[in-house]
Amino acid sequence: MSPIREQFLTLLEVEELIHKFEEKYQISTTEFLTNVELRAKMLDDEVFQWEAFHAHRDELERVSEEVRSAYLGSVKKCADETRVENNNLALAA
Amino acid sequence: MAQRGTTYGKYRPYADSEYDSLVIPPDCTETLKLIFTPVNDEAWSSRWYLEFTDGKYIRAAERFQRWPGLTGIAKRMTVAYHYGDIVRRNPDDNLPAYLGADQVDIRIDNGCAPIHLHFQSQNPHIPQSSVVGLDLESVDMFIFVKGIFKQRETKKPLDSIFKFKIR
Questions:
Q1: Alpha-carbon gap: B20 to the closest alpha carbon of chain A (Å)
Q2: Which residues of A touch B35 (CB under 8 A)?
Q3: Which domain covers residue A76, as residue numbers?
Q4: Which sequence spans correspond to the domains of chain B?
Q5: Is residue A4 part of a domain?
Q6: Pairwise CB contact (< 8 Å): B82 & A9
Q7: pTM of the entire structure?
Q8: Contact call for residues B120 and B166 (beta carbons, < 8 A)
Q9: Is residue A50 part of a domain?
């Protein structure tokens, strides 16, 4: 077993971590990402973590959308006789 | 280790191997043990803090992200390898905290510009074009940490350890 630690964050956990930074600095993540002067005054590691959590959230959302699109794509490919069932599956997605 | 393109599946065994072979000096403590936060094979970040009893510290932070336009390959998007005096601590986690004007022994980062070097002082930011003998992109956290350990052990200058000259 590796002594290196590994943490897996859910979308909810990442959003909570981002929210903590937004609360601490009283600005939105968008402002943080675009305000170069503000970032220059922040602790280096906090800039790193905030950016990393933002990228983490983006990637989780991208993957989620990819899975959802692939699923919906597979639903559309089914034969006509399963249309009603597919509509229900698409609604569920 | 393939900083120009890799995956978590390839990078992680490399990190395990390098970490296992690392001999941490007696005057050094990992105040934040190396931790990886992966999203998937194409996106992850890591943080690592090591402190010395003489008031200096190392911080290594990396973030890899899906390479734009390429599938299945990650690129190191953010890097910060820092060695210098502990000037202050973050009250939230008590780890050494760095602000842009603080003292630096050596630092490699791409925070506000393409990857560059700080050497013995915060300014100037030394671009790769002025660093001879060392490809900054080829330096990873283990190369950096081992270099610092070696410098502290041998007392040789850092530019000699990392084999670079500034022009």
A1: 8
A2: 4-7
A3: 11-92
A4: 8-166
A5: no
A6: no
A7: 0.90
A8: no
A9: yes
